[in-house]
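Entry:
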Amino acid sequence: MESEVSELLHGIVAPSEAWRGKARQHLDTLTKPLGSLGRLEDMAAQVAAIRGERMGEPVRKAIFVFAADHGVTASGVSAYPREVTVQMVHNILAGGAGISVLTQQHDVALHVVDIGVDTDFGTGVGMAPSLLHHKVARGTRNLLHEPAMSREEVLAALRVGYRLASEAAAEGCNLIATGEMGIGNTTAASAITCALTGVDAARATGRGTGANSATYANKVRVVEEAVAKHCPSPAAIAPFEILRRLGGLEIAAMAGVVLAAARHRMVMVLDGFIATAAAAVAVGIAPDALGYCIAGHCSEEPGHSILLDYLGLAPVLSLGMRLGEGTGAVLAMPIIESALALYLRMATFTSAGISGATP
């Protein structure tokens, strides 16, 4: 285990199987045929395993959207220029982005974080929410030619995500998600996916933000060459090092949120490809963190289904989305809340005076 991240692993234990068993028993007493709520019952039992005696506490939701630039954009992997990262941060802050609309619609506290955007935002940027300034560097290096980050940069970004999520937990948040904004980050996520799972670049790499055929072919080549250069024997390389060599500052910060969610027993809702790549790294560092994760949706990015299979997670939704920003995670939150409401508020056969099934 990397000694540098040991401080972030303290107190992480798997969710309680005893509480999961109690939840299953309670679900079987509710006024419905056994198992008739399908995966909603699985979700309720997982949340009970995570929250235990705090199961009945009101749900408080938050999402952290981390923004950062990627040096690999210089290698022509995206249809959009690097400047779009900062432009989209302004759009999110102004309320015009998809995540802005959905967080307002579903009463989710939105926090936008500059973890590595190649610009100086200044103070007072945005209206609601305000931008959180935690810049570690002005983007990553080009992973095609050199490791994306230094060890110090990865640790700093991990700690930012961990600290922000821990502060949210202290304020009563118990349902948390992450999102991202960063042109070039699907290339980083594809490379991480190849390194973690062993699949080839063509399978793990999608078109991202609308790349044409030539750009896509170049992107596959970049991913393939970067993985071969930095992770020639992936099984022998620690997840922290895979993140450092192939990742991004926002991916590292999101991994920090996953670790903090497990530490503070929060339900961690994963968004799409980039967020799940971050979670896969976090689970590689702390395997018990997996039990706190719920996959909000399955992205159209081909690497996302590979990562979900690798982690053994079934998505709540499958809507053909690939927007990112945390939108899929926020859309899944009402489903998770519905599972909890049914668990907590449905009558039992006994309380309703209804005859149960004949043995």
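Residues 59-337 form a domain with the Rossmann fold fold (CATH 3.40.50.10210).
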